[in-house]
Amino acid sequence: MSDEPTADTDRESVDESADASPYTLQRDDDEHRAFWADAVADRVEARDPEEPIVVKGGISPSGVPHLGNVNELMRGYYVAEVLRERGHDVRQVFTADDRDPLRKLPRTLCDLEGELVDLGEVDAGALGRNLGAPYTDIPDPFGCCDSYGDHFSTLIADSADAVDVPIELVSNTELYESGELEDVTRFVLENRDRAREVLSEYQDKVDASYVPFNPICEECGKITETVTDVDLGVEPATVAYRCTDMDAGDRTVDGCGHEGTATLREGKLPWRFEWPAQWKVLGVDFEPFGKDHAEGSWPSGQDVARNVLEIEPPVPMVYEWFTLEGEPFSSSAGNVILVTDVLELIEPAVLRYFFAKDPAKARDFSIERLDQLVDEFDRLEAIYFDEIEADEDETAFAKRVYPLLVDEPRAERVRLPYTFAAVLGMTDDPALREEIARREGHVPDDAPEWAVEGALARVERARTWARRTENEFDYELKRTEIPDHDFDPATEAALAELAEFIEAGHGPEEIQGEIYETAKRYDVDVGEFFGAGYRLFFDEKQGPKLGPFLAKVDREFVVDRLRRER
RNA sequence: GGGCCGGUAGCUCAGUCCGGCAGAGCGUCUGGCUUUUAACCAGACGGUCGCGUGUUCAAAUCGCGCCCGGCCCGCCA
Questions:
Q1: Mean pLDDT value across residues A117-146
Q2: Is the CB of A254 within 7 Å of strand B?
Q3: Which InterPro entries match (predicted)?
Q4: Last residue of some domain: A312, A339, A365?
Q5: CA triple A359-A163-A140, angle to 5 deg
Q6: What pLDDT does A248 receive?
Q7: Strand ranges inside A105-187, DSSP E
Q8: Residue range of the domain that includes A253
Q9: What is the pLDDT of residues A187-207, one digit of tens each?
Q10: pLDDT band (50, 70, 90) for residue A14
Q11: DSSP character for A1?
């Protein structure tokens, strides 16, 4: 942290690494990087890591895997990709921290298809009886997976697939049961005095009786906190425990009072030790984490790593949380959105772009204003292909990041502006959509087939967006049935004359003009006359620019509808 | 109480590391597209850079003190 020269070369490595701030993405002597992941990669390389380099993330499979979880995935992914570009072999490991106990009942769950399900629709009683037990020991409420933990781990894996991030999903329970964590667990217990000493700097509750191991009660299956004895002299090593009450959030999970023994595979390390233990066992070189860990888990974690486990902690990076529509993600409050839902609204590349932005800034993911995010992405893409001018910084960022967002940069791609795509979504006729897009100049004449397909795929997404948000683009051509209406005679006569005009065959702008003219001739208020049109075609008071729209819908239908014959 | 991150146009954000004319997109307004009707084009408007203070020829940028929002000091993306 200090620039002062160090006299003792012996201490240099210690000084350099001690108190590593998880916030600073680069040091003073680093060259400036357009993309934060490059700055992180510089620091990972500075460790001179062994191949393969390991990038880790992890979450508790506690419930609906929402967009917040994708943050953890994507932040690691960019660093992994940058390191791969530099010729390194990189593993992106993701732990499902599935030996963690269920602390409270989620109000909302979801099945493997991503359908949200209220807690009341599953066997809530069975879940309630399992409060305090590891996720992997709780039956899957949907009955489709081996356990509650497996169910939601599967969904995490699906999320990673959906954004095309290759991860190795590692079950924490599996690490304990297979014995992979046994040596480090034993080491912590052998050195529990030192462990206590280190952790007591961070947690007041750590006293002389503290034992850094939480056995699973063989009687009731819950994670317990009261270890009464440790015996490392037998094989396998065991701890003796008494199943006591455990604090879990605002409530207490009752212990059953059972006294028994457990092996080191039949329990877990407390989080403050478990995290560094994962670093050691998995050989982690870089780990991003939410800001919640920045001031608690991370300072104690790196201390435990160096002074208990005697390993160098990974390069850290804090990312800010983001909100959904201005509110925190919350499965209990129903403020969640799954990755699969998001991908029905925007292309994967756009979602990936969202997570490429500065991790230090809190952001809002707004479905309402999703068009803004898409516009931003389109701009980045256009800058990448030198189609528009931008300043130095923005250009550098675009050039660096864009190739990481798409499978393959292809200059011939075609993007319809998102809100325009939403307008096209008012009709479900694919040919009509393409025709209007071409007429408006959004599709070049020589655009290849795949590019046109890609452009029109956005129409479906924008249509889904308009429907979901019920916004100003949520109009639907009412083809099958004529909407209820009530016009005065003058309006009816004007509509009849407009029908004749259109039947005779005129262009989009001519029709637009004729709407005004007809209204005037029959002394109908222009606004009301447009309103009548929107009523007939959309069952709404407002809509898209009417002339061009009607000109493109098949003429017979338009004429009949204006005459209110169908 | 102590610590950390953020605060830039109505909105979403770049720019802060490295001090050098305050920027982009959207929105708004005006005009154009044959005549108010949400797509397209042009232009304009829009800012005490959270507040104060120090350093400097020069501060959004560096220092210090505050304010506001969030987070941590139990568990937890």
A1: 90
A2: no
A3: aa-tRNA-synth_I_codon-bd_sub2, aa-tRNA-synth_I_CS, aa_tRNA-synth_I_cd-bd_sf, Lys-tRNA-ligase, Lys-tRNA-ligase_SC_fold, Rossmann-like_a/b/a_fold
A4: A365
A5: 105
A6: 64
A7: 108-110, 116-118, 168-171
A8: 204-269
A9: 999 999 999 999 988 888 888
A10: very low
A11: -
Beta strand A322-324 with A363-365 is parallel
pLDDT, one tens digit per residue, over A451-472 is 999 999 999 999 999 888 887 7
pLDDT at A20: 67
Examine the predicted complex and report whether its ipTM is higher than 0.85. Answer: yes
pLDDT of residue A513: 82
Residue A542 one-letter amino acid: Q
Instruction: Identify the domain boundary among A303, A336, A365.
Output: A365
* Separation of alpha carbons A506 and A561, rounded Å: 17
What's the first-to-final CA gap in chain A, in angstroms? 77
Q: Which of A's residues 133-192 have CB atoms within 7 A of nucleic strand B?
A: none
Other Cβ atoms closer than 10 A to A411: 10
CA distance A413 to A50: 40
A331 touches strand B (CB under 7 A): no
A527 CA to B43 C1' in angstroms comes to 28
| Same-domain pairing of A191 and A102 | yes
Element (H, E) at A283: none
Segment holding A499, helix H or strand E: helix A489-503
Coil/strand/helix, residue A99: coil
Over residues A37-51, the pLDDT tens digits come to: 998 999 899 889 999
Q: CA A196 – C1' B6 distance (Å)?
A: 35
The answer to whether some atom of strand B lies closer than 7 Å to the beta carbon of A290 is yes
Indicate if A297 and A148 belong to the same structural domain. yes
For chain A, give the mean pLDDT: 86
| Residue A288: nearest nucleotide (C-alpha to C1') | B77
Please report whether residue A480 resides in a domain: no
Q: Is A5 inside any structural domain? A: no
Residues A235 and A317 in one domain: no
Are A257 and A135 within one domain?
Answer: no
Domains held by chain A: number: 4
Q: Which residue has the higher pLDDT, A20 or A302?
A: A302
Asked whether residue A463 is domain-assigned, the answer is yes
> A75 — phi, psi (to 5°)?
-65, -45
pLDDT at A250 over 80: no
Tell me, what's the pLDDT at A1? 32
Indicate whether A78 and A211 sit together in one domain: no
CATH of the domain at A504: 1.10.10.350
A25 within a domain of the structure (yes/no): yes
A208 and A198 together in one domain: no
